[in-house]
């Protein structure tokens, strides 16, 4: 048996061979990765779950205007993303290639996250639209470079089992990202308690500041603790490979195309996600019911997330992801046809919708663990083909396509509310109150259920085309290890030669 064969163990899907079980990541780094992700995720969750509701309810934007903002900001991102990808790939600093972007991106990203909710009251309708557009563009610029930190996962360790551990730890910790869910409670009750001296928009503004501070602290901590270890190509190797050749390989990569397709379908869920606050306020009477429901729907995830790596190991990464998507799609479809039919009993109505959403959401965190693992396999596959880890430009390409998709999703999420003729109802203080039109309420329910159903079915079925599995994956991992070891040995020999030359001259 060769040395390379001795350095292999079983793959996580039980179907092949993988790199030796060498440990790279320290427990402190695992904790730092989870903490950084948690702090950043709180802010992204807050912005993602409230931005459309805030802009349509308090800025007075129409659904079409909100969709137009998504489209225009995407055009801007089309110019910025390729540049950010090239910069990230070619970055070489004493702190690593990726860690610096944890810090560099924060001023843009954090500032815009606060500005979303700090709109001057004197602005006209046109000024509010322009303000929302500009802050969205700034947010996109910051996020383009912040995404560099997400690539750390694939550079902290080449061991896919360690990656699974990192991801599972991250996803489990993020289950405790419940702080954004407190926002509806404060929005419902703070104005009344303060006799409307603190308005609903001001509650959102206060939370934005809090989450920004939390994100900054987590980013700084992660910067100082985490390390990058995967051997990288030198700038000379990158230049020899050729930028155009790398682009051609990326554009013709089947795994990348499949992940982009699955991501496009998965993103359709955001249309349903954007309707959540509208559903809870208008259909159930209270925005804070969303928090109450999440206390129950989230409980199974505390069991599912830790065992997700074992499920993947037992059934295989691709099979697990496909099954999770199809199951969730079927559950959301069934929930729609069952319908939301208030019985007049508040607690019975609440229990029925909560049970339905719990079943629909069971696969969510399994897919949450599968997604970065699939992405890691795709990065490894491209390195296998080219000899270069072009994660920055690949991530930028993915980000670009995903943002194009997001612009479609944003436009759709706005347009569907125009289709059902939704207009927010407000009291004399400017606070939003529940809608009463049965047709509007039925339309909200349809958006709430059918958008996630389409998303999950599309996500699962598209992964049938993902070809990095089985024997192909086994061969890829073995050959990658050989190539990386050879590169490390070559660099060590060059350093030794330089030292010997310096010693002889001295």
Question: Can you offer a commentary on this structure?
Answer:
This protein has 506 residues and is an all-alpha fold. The chain has a single domain (25-468), classed as Growth Hormone, Chain: A, CATH 1.20.1250. The chain is 75% helix and 2% strand. It is built from 23 helices and four strands. It has helices at residues 3-6, 27-57, 63-90, 100-104, 106-115, 125-150, 152-156, 160-174, 183-193, 200-225, 235-241, 243-251, 254-267, 269-274, 276-284, 289-297, 301-315, 317-338, 346-361, 364-386, 391-419, 438-462, 470-505; strands at 8-10, 17-19, 425-426, 432-433. The strands form two sheets. The chain has a two-stranded antiparallel ribbon with strand order 1-2. Strands 3-4 form a two-stranded antiparallel sheet.
TL;DR of this structure?
This protein is mainly alpha-helical and 506 residues long.
Strand line-up across the major sheet: 1-2
The coarse overall form would be: globular
User: Roughly how much helix do the residues carry, as a percent range?
Assistant: over 70%
CATH topology heading: Growth Hormone, Chain: A
Please write the CATH class name.
Mainly Alpha
Number of domains: 1
Task: List low-pLDDT spans.
Answer: 1-20
E-strand count: 4
User: Any guess at the CATH architecture?
Assistant: Up-down Bundle
Strand content: under 5%
Class derived from helix and strand content: mainly alpha
> DSSP helix count?
23
């Amino acid at each position: 048996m060769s040395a390379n064969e001795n350095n292999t163990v079983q793959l996580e899907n039980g179907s092949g061979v993988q790199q030796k079980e060498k440990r790279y990541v320290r427990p402190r780094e695992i904790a730092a990765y989870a903490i950084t992700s948690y702090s950043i995720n709180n802010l992204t969750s807050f912005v993602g779950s409230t931005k459309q509701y805030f802009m349509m309810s308090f800025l007075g934007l129409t659904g079409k205007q909100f969709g137009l903002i998504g489209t225009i900001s995407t055009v801007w991102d089309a110019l910025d993303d390729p540049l950010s990808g090239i910069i990230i790939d070619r970055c070489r600093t004493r702190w690593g290639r990726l860690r610096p972007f944890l810090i560099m991106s924060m001023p843009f990203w954090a500032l815009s996250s606060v500005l979303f909710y700090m709109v001057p009251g004197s602005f006209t309708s046109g000024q509010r639209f322009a303000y929302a557009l500009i802050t969205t563009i700034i947010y996109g610029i910051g996020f383009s470079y912040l995404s560099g930190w997400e690539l750390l996962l694939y550079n902290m360790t080449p061991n896919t089992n360690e990656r699974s551990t990192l991801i599972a730890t991250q996803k489990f910790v993020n289950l405790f990202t419940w702080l954004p869910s407190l926002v509806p409670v404060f929005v419902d009750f703070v104005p009344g308690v303060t006799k409307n001296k603190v308005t609903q928009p001001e509650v959102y503004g206060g939370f934005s500041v809090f989450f920004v501070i939390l994100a900054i602290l987590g980013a700084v901590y992660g910067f100082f603790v985490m390390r990058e270890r995967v051997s990288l190509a030198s700038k000379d190797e990158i230049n020899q490979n050729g930028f155009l050749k790398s682009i051609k390989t990326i554009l013709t990569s089947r795994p990348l195309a499949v992940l982009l397709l699955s991501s496009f379908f998965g993103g359709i869920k955001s249309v349903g996600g954007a309707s959540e606050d509208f559903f809870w306020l208008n259909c159930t009477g209270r925005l804070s019911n969303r928090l109450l429901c999440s206390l129950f729907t989230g409980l199974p995830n505390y069991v599912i997330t830790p065992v997700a790596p074992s499920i993947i190991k037992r059934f295989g990464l691709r099979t697990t992801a496909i099954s999770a998507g199809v199951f969730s799609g079927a559950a959301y479809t069934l929930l729609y046809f069952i319908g939301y039919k208030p019985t007049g009993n508040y607690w019975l109505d609440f229990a029925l919708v909560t049970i339905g959403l719990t079943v629909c959401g069971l696969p969510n965190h399994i897919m949450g663990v599968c997604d970065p693992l699939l992405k890691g396999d795709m990065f490894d596959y491209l390195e296998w083909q080219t000899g270069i880890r072009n994660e920055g430009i690949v991530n930028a390409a993915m980000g670009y396509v995903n943002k194009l998709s997001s612009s479609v999703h944003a436009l759709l999420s706005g347009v569907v509310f125009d289709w059902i003729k939704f207009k927010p109802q407000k009291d004399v203080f400017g606070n939003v109150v529940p809608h009463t039109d049965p047709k509007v309420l039925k339309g909200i329910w349809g958006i709430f259920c059918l958008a996630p159903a389409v998303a999950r079915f599309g996500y699962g079925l598209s992964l049938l085309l993902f070809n990095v599995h089985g024997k192909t994956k086994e061969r890829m991992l073995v050959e990658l290890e050989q190539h990386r070891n050879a590169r490390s040995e070559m660099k060590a020999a060059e350093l030794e030669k330089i030292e010997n030359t310096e010693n002889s001259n001295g």
